[in-house]
Amino acid sequence: MAAPRNPPFRAEHLGSLLRPEQLLKTRDAAERGEVPQAELTALQDAEIKKIVDVQKELGYHALTDGEYRRHMFWGSFFNGLEGMTEIQEPSVDLFRHYLPDIAAFLETKHKPAPSCVCTRKIKHVGSTYVDQFSYLKSLVPPEEVKNLKLTVAAPNWYHLRYREGLAYPKDVYSSDKEYFADVAKAYQDEFEILYNAGLRNIQFDDPNLAYFCSESMLQGWKEDKLNVYTADELLDEYIKLYNDCISKCPADMHVGVHLCRGNFVKSRHFSEGGYDRIAIKLFQELNVNTYYLEYDTPRAGGFEPLKLLPKDKNVIVGVVTSKFPELEDFGEMKQRVLDAAKFVAEGSGQTVQEALRRMGVSPQCGFASHSEGNAIDHAGMVGKLKLVRQLADDIWPGEP
Questions:
Q1: DSSP code string of 11-51
Q2: Which of 80, 194, 187 is closest to 132 using CA atoms?
Q3: Could you count the other beta carbons within 10 Å of the beta carbon of residue 1?
Q4: 6 in any annotated domain
Q5: Nearest residue to 102 via CA among 234, 222, 271, 239
Q6: CA-based nearest residue to 318, from 309, 328, 326
Q7: What range does the domain containing 253 cover?
Q8: Which string of DSSP letters, residue by residue, matches 316-363?
Q9: Domain holding 360: CATH number?
Q10: Domain count, the chain
Q11: Most buried residue, 45, 95, 227, 250, by most Cβ within 10 Å?
Q12: Is residue 8 one of the residues assigned to a domain?
């Protein structure tokens, strides 16, 4: 089987784009009750149109709304589920302190952001994404709607974060199996609504999967006597959860997953460690079409794990950093993509040119996983996106 294309495209970005300062100020004022919600919505609409135009001008096809209506990359999915309750100031005792992001919060004395916990049976009661998508699709011709990309929360996000036994009440769910079944059903319902609205391009954003590459997390996991799974057993459970979530997606729904290594204050990353440890399960057992992988620094390891990528799957190599404004060397970045292609080719018995048919290039992560954004300004972001487009045009001339 050939890997699906268009989407993904040769030049991709990971969804979140820097939010204008006025948008952030107006949102904060709306939350304080100083500005009507209608004024904020109108400004969001206007700024989304502008950033869509920027993406078009730069030659991108998997357009997003920049996540301009969100506080954080995971958006509003879990908040909108019946049975999930938002906690504004969660206690640090709720979390596994050895998870890379939680460890970073504690080290820098930042309070954890508001969090969602299960308090009763989980049920999908309406999409919190569909209105965002509907506005986005109003900005493109009908024939381009299929290219639009929506980023969604990882289904394991509010499970791994919490200490064993705290993700849900035991009198609500007797086991992870029951809990995961309802989470998966909620995603199935969400994707059906989005598909019917015209969405054909989903990207999961998942820092958790990359945590299974982190030696510090794995060591902490071993030392935590409360855990009932080994780390490998839990990764198996999460892969099954993912596969259940997308099991009813129609064949023409492209599904990708971005393994994020974290964006924190001043562009700090969270996790380190190559993909080697999880590559077989990640590439061969997770039923997605495309992997968006961070490869901007040595913390992600080498390209060798790409030898395990099956012939019917794509990889987008994130060799350009979104964290800092300094532009990478064009020739060096091109060579890195070609180096990655050599491993894809070796593993699948293909030529490098054949392997390149299943590849693309992108920044390693979004530019604003959280509202404040990375240590880069708008001009710097545009420069990075131009570089990615130029790389794609050079390696795959004439292709979107």
A1: B---S--PPPHHHHHHHHHHHTTSS-HHHHHHHHHHHHHHH
A2: 194
A3: 7
A4: no
A5: 271
A6: 328
A7: 21-395
A8: EEEEE-SSS-PPPPHHHHHHHHHHHHHHHHHHHT--HHHHHTTEEEEE
A9: 3.20.20.210
A10: 1
A11: 95
A12: no
> Are 104 and 270 contacting, i.e. CB atoms less than 8 angstroms apart?
yes
- Is residue 13 included in any domain, yes or no? no
Q: How far is CA 388 from CA 4, 60, 84, 141, 217, in A?
A: 21, 10, 39, 24, 32
In a domain, 12, yes or no: no
Predicted structure pTM score: 0.96
Task: Please give the structure tokens belonging to residue 384.
Answer: 């990075």
Tokens representing residue 19 in the block: 């939010």
Q: Which of 226, 229, 122, 123 is nearest to 172 (CA)?
A: 122
